[in-house]
Amino acid sequence: MAAIHAVHATLLLLTQREVHPSPASSGAAARRRFTAQLGSSVLIFGLSIPLAFVSTDAAMWFWLTLIPAHLILGHHLCRLPQQ
Question: Nearest CA to 60 among 73, 47, 76?
């Protein structure tokens, strides 16, 4: 799962300028938010791998941190003023 998200995040970053030439456009901002969400998924799943060697139950419970991470990155960042 983490590898798939990492590939998607990389492709989004590589094609950023081709699709949205202006970094100030709303589409570019939405793309950055989605890339941040994918990055948080990669981080959480990646950190759960060594945790699973210690406790598999703790690793599965750790996946629940995806919910607040995606809520913060997806909804909270939409409300931030544009710079």
Answer: 47
